[in-house]
């Protein structure tokens, strides 16, 4: 059960466990079965580690979010994720632009605040002397 190069590169530098050991542990956890197609992943097939909830969509990089898929199954699954990831990125960018615009704009007073300001001005203005 050899993980692909892509998996190995993606999992390098994660503690004492090597990328291969971690990939094999994930595969053993799911009893050697690909959750995408339901078939066994033989020890001679290449497989890749997939994030159930894509990291690009805010998914965590934890063991319970990782699963082993056949290389072809992972490619098929990822094709479907591309549009969703692009949509998520657009939404985040739009939200960031909105948040920035809201944080930098000057807020105009509402009607109640304008009325209160006019009353304050009237109180502060000296009364005109009465003409007799």
UniProtKB/TrEMBL annotation:
CDD domains: HNHc (cd00085). Residues 88-132 are annotated as: Disordered. Keywords: Endonuclease, Hydrolase, Nuclease. It comes from the Bacteria. GO terms for molecular function: endonuclease activity; nucleic acid binding; zinc ion binding. Residues 110-124 have a biased composition (Basic and acidic residues). Gene3D superfamilies: 1.10.30.50. Residues 22-75 form the HNH nuclease domain. This is HNH endonuclease. It comes from Aurantimonas coralicida. The lineage of its organism: Bacteria, Pseudomonadati, Pseudomonadota, Alphaproteobacteria, Hyphomicrobiales.
């Amino acid at each position: 059960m050899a993980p692909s190069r892509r998996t190995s590169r993606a999992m390098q530098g994660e503690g004492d466990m090597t990328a291969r050991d971690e990939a094999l542990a994930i595969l053993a956890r799911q009893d050697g079965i690909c959750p995408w197609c339901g078939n066994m992943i033989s020890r001679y097939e290449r497989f890749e580690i997939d994030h159930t909830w894509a990291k690009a969509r805010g998914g965590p990089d934890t063991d319970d979010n990782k699963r082993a898929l056949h290389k072809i199954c992972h490619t098929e699954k990822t094709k479907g994720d591309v549009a969703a990831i692009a949509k998520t990125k657009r939404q985040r960018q739009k939200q960031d632009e909105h948040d920035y615009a809201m944080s930098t704009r000057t807020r105009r007073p509402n009607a109640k605040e304008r009325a209160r300001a006019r009353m304050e001005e009237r109180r502060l203005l000296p009364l005109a002397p009465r003409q007799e």
